[in-house]
Amino acid sequence: MLEKESTQTNAANERWKNLGSEAFKSYDKSRKIFRDLNALIVQDTFGAYASPKDERIFEIGAGDGELARLVSPDIKRRLISSDLNPKFAKMIQGKNRDLSVLSADAEKLPLRDGEIDIVSGYSTFDILPNMEIAAREIGRVLKENGKFIHFMDLQHTEYFVNDILGSDKRVFPNLSRFESQNEGGPQYHLFHSYAKVEDIRSVLEKIKGNYELYDLVNYYLEEPAAAYREMNTSGLEIMARALKKRGVNFTPLDYPMLFQERVGEIFSGIGFEILKNEMELREKTLNSDQILPPDMKGFNCVRRRAGMNIFINGPDIEPGKLKLISELHVFVAEKK
To answer: How far is CA 139 from CA 75, 167, 282, in A?
Structure first.
């Protein structure tokens, strides 16, 4: 088991090191619409849990530097950003000349025991191949009563999904797309869903004649993490629709709630006190929908819940106005 986990960790780290900056373009497209709302959540959280005495704030998995964009100037002055990929570290440094940046593995931090006041991350923890190892490493470098502050604004990776769901289920992105009618008007939802492995296996005989589909389904059953990563979203959606037509049942997933439960379990298990583990919301109303990309137009309210967009036509919103609502998952834990 340990050998398999080590192999998976090494493979995941190599993939991350080989990524280029273009990997963040799709994230930035939606993030920039909600960035000022997310900045309010981030700054309010640091304001509540970081004291002026917390001089060393270390960020893991900085990616393209989203956290550095959102924090206040005072927190940024104390921030040390790191990423496993040297290219990302160099990119962040190029955008932030006054920011301390280095390349570092979140599971093997180049820091002494107990030298950091706060460890932070922004949509980072779920992309780590082994969250338990990373949590212990965070605990090692934190001072007594030091804090881990993490924000989540994206849907979660194959590592987190497979860790949570276990070997008897498989996840499929954006399977549930439907409009529903309620008191607030029609709503358009995008939900990830999961199916049980036994249900998928039960229909394999029905798809044997479709060799390409049969091979892809078998690949996903045998190597879920690799298949989830290698098949793009549309490929998984096509597979899911084909399985659904053949009688496979799917259950919608609530990723933020799953992450909330899992991250709480991990840090409680190593002796941290959980100070905050919940969704935080901020909203604003604009004069038009001109900032929205074409796939978001036609609605007067867009709610982004940790990376899942919910489109609403609400009767309480004035004509010509657009309401934006952003929800981040916020996690704060203190080392004891």
So the answer is: 21, 29, 30
